[in-house]
Design brief:
The radius of gyration is 12 Å and the shape is globular. The chain has one domain: Oxidized Rhodanese, domain 1, CATH 3.40.250.10. 24% of the residues lie in helices and 21% in strands. The model has no long low-confidence stretch (mean pLDDT 94). The protein contains 3 helices and 5 strands. Strands 1-5-4-2-3 form a 5-stranded parallel beta sheet. Keywords: Transferase. InterPro entries: GlpE_sulfurtransferase, Rhodanese-like_dom, Rhodanese-like_dom_sf. It comes from Dyadobacter jejuensis.
Length: 101
């Protein structure tokens, strides 16, 4: 099976990528965490990433983020397994939102 790979990026790089067209930031934390604080993008909890993949279809670049990088890494690896997404660029924010602190 051929699969895509993700690229680790910093929080600053995420903020730069957000400005590019066809880029979507997916925050995989729980809704209450997203409501408490977020850096933009959409909220799809880790447990829902497979059920809501269709929301990501139109985008060329997908940036995945969470609090400390653990859940987002799992999501990035899952997105890399989607055969139809071999042409998408998948990014993982290493260190998550806490990286800034």
């Amino acid at each position: 099976m051929i699969k895509n790979t993700y690229t680790d990026i910093s929080l600053a790089e995420m903020k730069s990528l957000m400005l590019q067209p066809n880029t979507l930031v997916v925050d995989v934390r729980e809704p209450w965490e997203f409501e408490e604080f977020n850096d933009g993008g959409i909220n799809i909890p880790l447990s829902e990433i497979r059920n809501q993949r269709d929301r990501l279809e139109p985008y060329e670049r997908i940036v995945v983020v969470c609090t400390n990088g653990v859940r987002s890494k799992i999501a990035a690896m899952d997105y890399c397994r989607v055969e139809a997404w071999l042409d998408k660029a998948i990014y993982h924010v290493k260190g998550g939102l806490l990286e800034a602190q």
